[in-house]
Structure prediction request, 398 residues.
Amino acid sequence: MKRLLLSFLFVIAFGSCAFEEGEDELCFVGDSITYLWDLEYYFPNYIVSKHAVSGAGLKQMDSWDVSDCKGRTTILLIGTNDIGYWKSTADGIEHLREEYKDRFIKSAKRIEASPLIVLSILPRNAWGEQDPAVNENIEIQNEILKRALKTEIPGSRFVDVFDMFLDSGFEIREDLFKDGLHPNDEGYEILSQKIQGVL
Amino acid sequence: MRKVLWIALLLCCVNLSANESFSYLLGMRNNHYVFVGVEYASRFGIAVENSVFTQGMEKQYVRVEPFYRWNLGEGLVGNYALYAGMRYDQDYYDVGARLDVLWQSYRYLQVGGTLMPFYDSSLKGLVGYQAYVQSFLLKEIGVFVGAKNLPDFRNVERRYMAGLEIESGNLIVRPELSFPMNGGTHLSRVSLFFVYRSL
Prediction:
């Protein structure tokens, strides 16, 4: 038994030198979609920290202490509570999109993640009565965010899952959502696999 | 890494058919980890466990676990185990010791518990535990309820648990439903443990 214990201590001592610290840690920041995500289950071999509150948008996120995400791989999924009612046909929508992009980049920079992985805002059909023009707007906003991240936050990744959750005519794929807003297990499986693909 | 696995598997299987004191076991825990092992005189044994994550090969996890099963009489049985594991890409390792105890004097009321101090190269030192009561109201099917913080994956999580224990010949199957102690039934989890012993 003593020999076994000594071997274990040996592994600990030398392991500390051989293994990289922080490589296996993930930080998630987001709204209820992240809050409801069983991250330990979908990312079983990572240490996960989660900053997520139902109903949150950029304004709320800016008040959170996310200092533990600094320098760490961070997955950001937020926006549906901010722009979830904007329609692509609304007056002045171009201006709103640009303004939102600026706010998004500012909030994302504040996290100081390395690298930052941004998941595209998901399409939605809250309460089954949302105008498809909302999803058309989300698609355009995602494109704007994708372009901005490339130039404003070098090294960041934009993971576009919007189309995967979308059916024809800007309708959502009901089979991937619990309630038109939050993914079901199958939806979370897709999100997780896409994230794992870039880790 | 593959060579190490093959050698470990070969060691597990050596002389199985030649000596009746040896038996083999195979099974799965937490849906994500399969294991094979060899046991001598239903007491000493060693098992090798490997993850079956949907991620790439380098993200898989392997663990070696020598153990000793004991029976103190009066219905008190248990298991000592030591383990050491690591992710294939060497991003982390963990080592730990585990003590399982089950008082099973009566079929209708059994009490069990586990204590598992362990060290994870990122999480550092932690102690996992679980306590449960179980009852075999039917010949081969029991129910259990309890609480635990034993890691389903890497980190400790305080959860309530309930499930079935089905014993049929050499096979034990243990499906479990668990949910976090701090509310949040949305993070409930169904996991499956089973083990088959050749003797």
Observations:
- Chain B has one domain: 2-197.
- The domain at 2-197 of chain B is CATH 2.40.160.40 (Porin).
- Chain B is about 5% helix and 60% strand.
